[in-house]
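note to self: the first set is below, dont mix up w the second
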Amino acid sequence: MALDLDIVTIAGHLCTVSLLPSETVLDLKAAIEAETKIPWSEQKLLLQANWEHTVLKNSQALSDCGLDAHDQDIMLVRSRPYNGKYKVDIKWNGSPTVEILGDLAKVSWGEHCIEAEIQWDPGLPQKATFTGLKLATSEWARRHTRGGHKDSDGVTETFTMMFKGDAAADGFSGTFQRQFEGPLPMQGCYLGDD
């Protein structure tokens, strides 16, 4: 019995492909390439459970990936030279971890996490920006709302990064701006791609 697999990006549905459970992730990537023209070599396919992502390996049979006869979404992210994890030092705001996987960014601030779609600058491939909503408040949010802002209201956080070279290991610099606050300098140090 064929598996009907919905392929999604962070922006939404991309395509649907049907494959047998005995076929491999590489076969799945070829089917996605046939539908979307995204080269298989630029595809990273993920199964998502809560905040955790499991990367599907090319040689795995679909049946060995935890896929079954039920329709399931598989997230596709395009590989980029800056994929990996970074420790980010932000003036007066500590050091979150930022994980970049293609067009997806995940920021971990202890118990708070945000995910957002990265906008890559078409004229300057080393420049990227993303904005996400963090379910928290801040001193400045409370001041600007005369104490009315709560964690459940959330604050938007914008990261603007300029990578220092052609590879992730070179790190990045840029600015961080939280809603109700001004921009602050930040530096990103590459931790690896695990």
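second set (the one i keep forgetting abt)
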Amino acid sequence: MSIGADPREFIERTVVKLEKLSVNHTIPYDEKEKRMRKLIAQISKRVETISETDSNTKAELACWMGKAYGCLPQYTKDAEEYLAKAIKLNPGLIDAWNCLGSEYWKKPDLKAAEDCFRGALEQKKNKANAYLLAISHVFNHLCTGELEEAIDGRPKFWRQRNWYILGNAYMSSFFETFSASDLEGCLKAYE
């Protein structure tokens, strides 16, 4: 990528590279983190070159920085601060809500994560599937009984879909914890 390239294009491409690198498990952890921090530094440098001061641009830049830091496997205060700033400047940035929820998940502040995923849902109802899945993961850890009651109160189509999502959340949790109760919850949700 050339130095003279449009800063926004460069930042977007670099964030995509960073996201791909974050899920690459063939690189040793230390090397991967070193590469990721180098890409974050490049993004930060480019963000500084953009001099527009309207709130939407500031929100977009803060979101990019937050997403970049959010790619790191551990919780980072920088990601939280940038993403919170992006949401404050432009509450319609669904990516910022979702990434901030993921960051709180890593913290772990499950209540704050839930609030962020709900905030994303409030912004864009038609992308509900991904956010419902994320919420189901949070609820799985917080209060499964309350979620089951909430699912039962919805129309049949939503009940079936949400039970499926909840089953997936239990299955995902089972592979993290190998808890028999997670497996039982999964089977119950799929029934």
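remember for set 2: The radius of gyration is 19 Å.
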